[in-house]
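Budget justification aside, the reviewers requested a transparent look at the raw inputs and outputs of the sequence design task funded under Objective 1. We therefore reproduce one unedited record. The lines immediately below are the structure tokens for a 84-residue chain.
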């Protein structure tokens, strides 16, 4: 359970998100609510969190990695979260 009452934020699937991936972005980003990089290559979107098939160190909601866009890299351990 997170401090905000959210449950099961990691361990089910890795979340594919719309953010561009830049491994150095957070070194110079705003500390509060960073918007993510403004652009990136066509294949560098972000996967957040870990799935049931991940190493333990990736099974956190703060883990992030670059990945091909889903239509180019389908997998049974990658999903997405609908937000409003």
């Amino acid at each position: 359970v997170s401090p905000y009452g959210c449950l099961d934020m990691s361990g089910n699937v890795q979340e594919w998100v719309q953010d561009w991936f830049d491994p150095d972005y957070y070194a110079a980003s705003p500390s509060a609510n960073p918007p993510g990089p403004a652009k990136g290559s066509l294949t560098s979107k972000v996967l957040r969190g870990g799935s049931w098939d991940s190493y333990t160190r990736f099974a956190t909601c703060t883990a992030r990695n670059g990945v091909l866009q889903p239509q180019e890299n389908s997998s049974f351990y990658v999903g997405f979260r609908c937000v409003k």
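The first strand starts at residue 14 and ends at 20. The chain has a mean pLDDT of 77. Computational costs for records of this kind are itemized in the attached budget.
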